[in-house]
Sequence to fold (155 residues):
Amino acid sequence: MPLPYSKKVIQHFNKPHNYGKMKNPDGIGEVGNIICGDVMKLYIKVGQNKKGQDIIKDISFETFGCLAAIASSSMLTDLVKGKTLEQAISFDRKEIVEGLGSLPPIKIHCSVLAGDALIEAIHSYLTKNKKPIPQALNKRHQQLAKEKQEIKETH
Fold:
């Protein structure tokens, strides 16, 4: 029986890119899924490009979770490093699955979780630096906060 994971997923799991805690990050995003038990923490450092736009200068992650969660986190860091915050906010989570070759349908939520960690890290940076928060970003942040609260109340 063939493995349900692509070669790329296995590679990112065995040797995750940008793995580890970051010292003095500009933003931190922490998300979890109580059903599967995955917890992701994403760290970003923000710099500026030649046009003066905020970019993700550095990014790293810590993930406690399954093979797909670790591979998704690793792939996400590769895909958004060097992008402007605007590009990262509008990042399509489907790119994670495409970059990995595929994920079993039951593991797609891992790529969504990684994307949510990115949203939270950017929100954290913008809030900390008293910068304007785009409406779409704030809306997703509020949804995630509501989900966290519901989980706390339920469990």
Notes: Strands lie at 27-32, 39-48, 54-64.
